[in-house]
Amino acid sequence: MLQTHPINHTAIWAQLHQHQRSTRFLHMRDLFAQNPARFEQMHVQLHGLLLDYSKNRITEDTLQLLVQLAEAADLRGWMDKMRRGDAINISENRAVLHTALRLPESASVYVNGHNVVPDIQRERERALAFAEAVNNGSHLGAHGDTITDVVNIGIGGSDLGPQMATLALKPYRQRVNVHFVANVDGANLAQTLEQLNPARTVFIVASKSFATPETLLNARAARTWFLQQGFAEADIGRHFVAVSSQVAAATEFGIAPANVFAMFDWVGGRYSVWSAIGLPLMCAVGAAHFNDFLAGAHAMDTHFFNAPLRHNMPVLLGLIGLWYNTFYEAASHAVIPYDHGLRRLPAHLQQLDMESNGKQTGRLGEHLDFDTGAVIWGEEGVNCQHAFFQLLHQGSRLIPSDFIVPVQSHYPLGKQHQVLVANALAQTEALMRGKTLAEAHAELAHLDNQSRDMLAPQKVFPGNQPSNTLMLDAVTPFNLGMLLALYEHKVFVQGTIWGVNSFDQWGVEYGKVLAAAIEPQLANTETLAHDASTNALIAHYRKHHEHNT
Ligand SMILES: O=P(O)(O)OC[C@H]1O[C@H](O)[C@H](O)[C@@H](O)[C@@H]1O
Question: What are the positions of the active site (predicted)?
Fold first, then answer.
C-alpha cells in the first residue's frame, strides 16, 4: 500500500510533537536516577554487537509512540517489499536488493520472475577467485611478475565502502597492498602511482554505471602511465580489470569481458560493498574473511526482518535518530568510532545516509513540509575530544551521536586500548550527566568568591546530550558486516517514515551537467553567460592559469 498522505498529517505525528513538548525538560541524569533498570530496558545485543540506547532523551512512552509512527508509515510493509525484490526505488523502477547479496546460496529472490541468487553467487565466485589468484601469486603480471599492489579506481559508492572496510579489516590483510584512487585531482593518482611498480600492479576500474567522468579519466590516465612504462596494449589484460553493471561499456573501454566482474542495477552504489564492488576488499582480506563479512550483514538482515520493532536494532537507531531530527529539529548527527581502523566510517555513512535521505520531495513527488536527512559527520575518537568536543559539551546545539567502541583491540599495546575505551565511556557519561552550577561551585571552593562566581558558570556542563553506544566484541569481518548493515537499515527506516525514496540520488546530477559545460570554458575564450560570480571566477582561472603555465 503506498502511503497516500504525508506522514506529518497523521495523528501520531502530532502526538509525538505534543510528547516532545511535555518531556523536553526531563534530564537524563534524573531518568537514570529514577530507574535503575534503564540500561536493562534500553539495550539490544545481537551476536558480538551491543547497542546501548539508554543515554537518550526518551522514555518508554517515547519509544512506544515512535513505534506507532513506524507502523503508521507501514514500515513492516516496506521492509517486506524490499526483501522480496519489489521495485521500491520507484523513480528508477528498480528493486533494492543489497540484502540479497548476503543471502546464503540456498535462498531465492525473484526480480521480474528471475531468481537472482545464482547470478550473485556466480559473480561473487568469479571475483573471489580472481582475488585469490592475485594473492596466491597464480595471477601474474604480463612479464611474469607476482602482483604486489592493487589499485581501485572508483568514486562514491565504488570507493567509500570498500575503502572503509579495507582499512577496518587491515589486521586480516593477506599479501597484496590495496590502494584507492577516487579524486579527479591528479595528486590522488600521481601520488599513488609514485609508489608502484607497473609490472606488479593490478588496477580495478570500479564504476556501476561505467559513465562516471572522474573514474574514466583516472582509468585512462592509469592506462597511459602503464603503457609509458614499457608495456604493450596486449599486456593490459593482465593488469586492468573492471567492476560494473554495464559490462558492454567496460569492454568498449578496452577491458576484456573475462576481466569484467558484474554487479546488478538493483544494488545502489552506496549499498554495493557486498557485490563485486567489494573486489578490492576481497583482494585485501581473502575469500574466507569476505564471506564472514557477508555473514555478519546477513545476521543483521535476519534480525531486522524478524525482530519486533520495539527491540529491533536498526529500527531503534532509526527511530531515535528521527526523534531528534524531526521533533527536536537537531540538524546533525555525529558518528565517533573509537577505532583507528574505522576512521573512514563517518565518510562512508555520510554518503550512505545523506545521499539516501537528503531529500525534500516524497516518493510520489509531493513536497515534504518537514526536515529529513541529518548532516552526518564525525572523526575517530579520541582525536576529536581534543578538537570539537568542546562544542558537544558546552555549545548551544543538540547534537546526538553514536559512539562505536570495540571491546578487544587488534593492537592493545599494553594499556592503550583500556585508555581508549575509558575515554569513550567517559565522554558518553559526561555528555549525559553534565555538571551543575552547584557541582562547579563545590569544585572551586578554594577560590575567593569573585573568582568563583566568574569561573563556576563557565565550568557548567548542561548535559542531556544524547548518545548511542555500539560496543563490538572486536572489529572482525563478521561484526563489521553487522555494523554496516545496521546503518543501511537505519537509513531505510528513516527514509520510509519520512516517505522519501532512499535509493535514488537526483541531487547529484545537476552539478555534473554544469561541470561538463564549464570544463571546456576554462580553456577557451568563449563569452561567458553564467551569473556574475561564476563568470568572474572562470575569468580569474583563465587569467592566472595562463600565467602559471
Ligand atoms: O559507480 P559509479 O557509477 O561510477 O558511481 C559512483 C558514484 O557517483 C554518483 O554520482 C553517485 O552520486 C553515487 O551514488 C555513486 O556511488
Answer: 355 (proton donor), 386, 512
Query: 210 C-alpha vs ligand 1 centroid, how far in Å?
Result: 9
- Under a CB-based contact definition with an 8 Å cutoff, are residues 82 and 99 in contact? yes
The predicted-structure confidence for 440-460, as pLDDT tens digits, reads as follows 999 999 999 999 999 999 999
What number is the average pLDDT over the span 214-225?
98
Q: Which of 123, 355, 380, 488 is catalytic?
A: 355
Q: How far is the CA of 334 from the centre of ligand 1 (A)?
A: 24
State the pLDDT at residue 353. Answer: 98
Average pLDDT over residues 265-289: 98
> What's 331's DSSP letter?
-
> 372 CB under 6 A from ligand 1?
no
Which atom of ligand 1 is closest in space to residue 158's alpha carbon? 1
For residue 540, which phi and psi values (nearest 5 degrees)? -60, -45
Model pLDDT, residue 546: 74
Q: Cβ(135) to ligand 1 under 6 A?
A: no
For the chain, state the CA radius of gyration: 25
CA pair distance 44, 49, nearest whole angstrom:
8
Q: In this structure, what C-alpha cell is assigned to residue 260?
A: 569484467
512 a catalytic residue: yes
Q: What kind and span of H or E run contains 123?
A: helix 117-136
pLDDT at 241 over 80: yes
